[in-house]
Amino acid sequence: MKTVKEGEVRKREILMVARDLFVTKGYEKTSVNDILKIVDIAKGTFYYYFASKEAVLAAIILDIVDEGAKRAERMLNDQSVPLIKRIMMAIMAQSPEFEGSEEIRDEMHKVENAKLEQLYTKAMLKRMTPLLEVAVAEGIATDLFHLDYPREAIESILLLGHMLFDCNIMDWEMADYPKKIQGFLANMERMLGTRAGELEDFLQMFA
Amino acid sequence: MKTVKEGEVRKREILMVARDLFVTKGYEKTSVNDILKIVDIAKGTFYYYFASKEAVLAAIILDIVDEGAKRAERMLNDQSVPLIKRIMMAIMAQSPEFEGSEEIRDEMHKVENAKLEQLYTKAMLKRMTPLLEVAVAEGIATDLFHLDYPREAIESILLLGHMLFDCNIMDWEMADYPKKIQGFLANMERMLGTRAGELEDFLQMFA
DNA sequence: ACTAATATCGACTATCGGTCGGCAAATGGG
DNA sequence: CCCATTTGCCGACCGATAGTCGATATTAGT
Question: What's a Pfam family this protein contains (chains A, B) (predicted)?
Answer without folding.
Answer: TetR_N
